[in-house]
Write a structure and sequence with these properties.
The chain has a single domain (7-233), classed as Rossmann fold (3-Layer(aba) Sandwich), CATH 3.40.50.720. It has helices spanning 16-27, 39-50, 66-80, 103-130, 152-172, 209-220; strands at residues 7-11, 31-36, 56-60, 85-88, 134-139, 177-184, 230-233. The protein has 6 helices and 7 strands. Helix 1 links the parallel strand 1 (7-11) and strand 2 (31-36). Strands 3-2-1-4-5-6-7 form a 7-stranded parallel sheet, sandwiched between helices. The protein is globular, with a radius of gyration of 17 Å. It is an alpha/beta fold. Bound molecules: NADP nicotinamide-adenine-dinucleotide phosphate (NAP). NADP nicotinamide-adenine-dinucleotide phosphate binds at residues 12, 14-18, 36-38, 41, 62-64, 89-93, 112, 139, 141, 184, 186-187, 189-191.
Length: 238
């Protein structure tokens, strides 16, 4: 796929992996629709993306809300006339034992990491089918392939996301849609749960958000006849 002038919608674009993915697509000449709740940080990312001389729109939305997701998805074809790539990146994790996990924490992870992905993808499908070639990129995690104590809710959402993505791929590839799920290990971001942000890891060898973005863009650019459906990315020397 040639990324120049493709229309890309990225969730969770206000920081971290979503920000890096947005800037990588902007550099490749794609037109962007960026979304998150934090209007100020979203604007900052958009400003930086515009320095690559491409069109960038922002929509502030909370992915808990189905009505906001519907409006968000419709904004891309409304503004740019099409939608070629949906990047389901927004996500969060609370890490505690089953005994201590609250219902609110469990529900928030499932709402954003899984339900919002389903809703955004379902709403985007008519536009993605209309595109000559289209992509849905899901940011899952190596936690979607492994299990660990204190990870019950988060791992369940990411295992579920991988299953969702594989079913979607089997249903939609006949319409020219490719589905890529990327499974990063630890990445240097503020990733955490709710408003609890972690400081970016000072470890020098940790995978950077820009590395994840580069892996995604390289998988998208292979010929349409072939599909990279899953990527694992981890530190070489942790
Ligand atoms: P991050 O820096 O915390 O970014 C998370 C993004 O999700 C933010 O842009 C946030 O935007 C958005 N978001 C969260 N809740 C939202 C909501 N209710 N509505 C709309 N947007 C919401 O974390 P990150 O590391 O970049 O994480 C991105 C993805 O990578 C997640 O799916 C995560 O599970 C996955 N991942 C991360 C790691 C890691 O080690 N960092 C490893 C594997 C996978 P606002 O707060 O502005 O709304």
């Amino acid at each position: 796929m040639k990324l120049q002038n493709k229309v890309v919608l990225i969730t969770g674009a206000s920081r971290g992996i979503g920000e890096a993915v947005a800037l990588a697509f902007a550099q490749a000449g794609a037109k962007l629709l960026l979304t998150a709740r934090d209007a100020e940080r979203l604007q900052q990312v958009a400003e930086q993306a515009r320095t690559y001389q491409t069109e960038v729109e922002t929509v502030v939305a909370d992915l808990h809300d189905e009505a906001q997701i519907k409006k968000l998805i419709a904004h891309a074809p409304g503004k740019f006339g099409r939608l070629d790539i949906l990047v389901n990146n927004a996500g969060l994790g609370y890490f505690s034992s089953v005994a201590e996990m609250t219902t609110a924490q469990w529900d928030e992870m499932f709402a954003i990491n899984l339900r919002a992905v389903f809703l955004a993808t379902r709403e985007a499908i008519p536009y993605l089918r209309a595109a000559d070639e289209s992509f849905v990129v899901n940011v899952a995690s190596l936690a979607g392939k492994n299990t660990f104590a204190n990870g019950s809710g988060y791992t369940a959402t990411k295992w579920g996301l991988r299953a969702f993505a594989q079913c979607l791929m089997l249903e939609e590839r006949k319409h020219g849609m490719r589905v890529l799920t990327i499974c990063p290990g630890s990445v240097a971001t503020e990733f955490g749960g709710g408003n609890e942000r972690m400081p970016r890891s000072p470890k020098p060898n940790i995978v950077q958000p820009e590395d994840v973005a580069e892996a995604i863009l390289s998988a998208l650019q292979i010929p349409q006849r072939a599909m990279v459906s899953e990527i694992d990315i981890r530190p070489t020397n942790p």
